[in-house]
Amino acid sequence: MNEQLRFADSGEAADLAAFLGRLVHYDHAAAVRLQAQAGGGALAVFGRPPSFDVLAIRTVRLAAPVSAPLDLTVSAGELLESVDEAREAGAVVPAPVTGPPWAGVLPPRAGWRQVEGLPGPEAVREALVAAVAEFRARDEALPPQHRTRSERDRIGREIWSRTLGDTELPLRAVHAAQSLGFLRPVRSPVPVPVPAPAPPGAPEPLALFAAGGWLRLRTPYGSIATRRPGGLGALLVRPV
């Protein structure tokens, strides 16, 4: 019998459904890796939106701890279909699937230290808006004979590989955070759900952490993890 999950409230179920919906929008065959410790009060959901080269992490509070450790990879679409937002505020864990390569290499659980140099939330959003505008302007300026997928990808790599403020965090991590609804939305061809305001006493809006070869951008609504430039240390390989 598949594991039954009970979320802390309907808001947790709705937030998870929104996150899964965004992943499925970008990739109909998206998979997510689920982890929860026996007796713990939270479920960690890892996903990898295509093209961003980052991992997205959404933590969901549970009303009842799982009876045994949970660690498996499932279809994001099947999990989304099982989420009950209205009545039980829960979900049924689907049957596991063969995990994609990224699901076997996750950021470490511990050892994170906060990194200085991250601009404030408004400056981060302004940098994102400017990057989107630059990409569109350069794309529109391409002569017809050069308007190819490879040329657009080259422009995108150049722009989104730039770092933010005085940090090593690439702009693509911020772009992924915005696209998944982890930041206040900016202009986008795809609607982004607006998260509820953070409750009093919530963590600071944005913070950057490092552990080994990883960076993690934390927001009140989820985290984005990415490899540090040239860094392969502290990789956590777990069976999928």
Shape: globular
Count of helical regions: 5
The H/E string reads EHEEEEHEEEHHHEEEE
Main structural class: alpha+beta
Word description of this protein:
It contains 5 helices and 12 strands. It is α+β, with helices and mostly antiparallel strands and 240 residues long. The strands form 3 sheets. Strands 5-2-3-4-11-10-9-8 form an 8-stranded antiparallel sheet. A hairpin with a 7-residue loop joins strand 3 (42-47) and strand 4. The longest helix has 20 residues, at 121-140. The chain is globular, with a radius of gyration of 18 Å. Mean pLDDT is 86; it is low at 185-203 and 232-240.
Task: Give a summary of the structure in a few sentences.
The chain is an alpha+beta fold. Helices cover 27% and strands 23% of the residues.
Mind sketching the topology for me?
Blueprint: E1 4-6, H1 10-26, E2 31-36, E3 42-47, E4 55-61, E5 70-75, H2 76-82, E6 90-92, E7 105-106, E8 113-115, H3 121-140, H4 149-160, H5 171-179, E9 207-211, E10 214-219, E11 222-227, E12 236-237
Antiparallel strand pairs: 1-6, 2-3, 2-5, 3-4, 4-11, 7-12, 8-9, 9-10, 10-11
Helix pairs in contact: 1-2, 3-4
What tags apply to this protein structure?
about 240 residues, alpha+beta, two-stranded antiparallel sheet, 5 helices
